[in-house]
Amino acid sequence: MNTRGQNILLWLTPVAGLLFLVAYWLFPAFAPPLSPTLSPEEVAAFFKENLTAMRGVVIFGNIIGALLVPLFALIAVQMLRVVNSSPIFAYAYIIAAGIGITAFILADFAWGIALFRPDRDPQLISLLNDMAWFFLVAPVGCVFVQNLCLAGSIYLDARPDPVFPIWVAHFNIVTGLLMLPAA
User: Whole-prediction pTM value?
Assistant: First the structure.
């Protein structure tokens, strides 16, 4: 199998990580996240006061979300190489990753819409902000399933030279469990 293209796409992952750090450093608008007890007027005021930073969050969030897609596709391709496992693990992984990325992008869109017209009714800006946070946090269940699918595929790989090392399965189980409280 020619893996040159896969290696090229894999290098988009550290680029996404670096962009995440740059975005967090340049635009710390959500550090810490907005309190859910803020009134709509306070949320709208926050958006108006941090318009540039919030726009940076939206732009970088869109790019980062797109750059994660190749990583998930590469993992699914490698999961399909596990011959002792069922391809259902890879297909479920792809679906869970797709839902997660879609929700991430929808959160980004909701914030973008709130920022597009910062003078609109504070109730609408607050609603869009609430929607964005729900879209961002709600797919934790899908991320958990994504981790379980990868771990299950790895555990079923009984070959002497497995596709993934066993510690990756353990890491995914622990990561998935640590994400559950966010749900």
Answer: 0.85
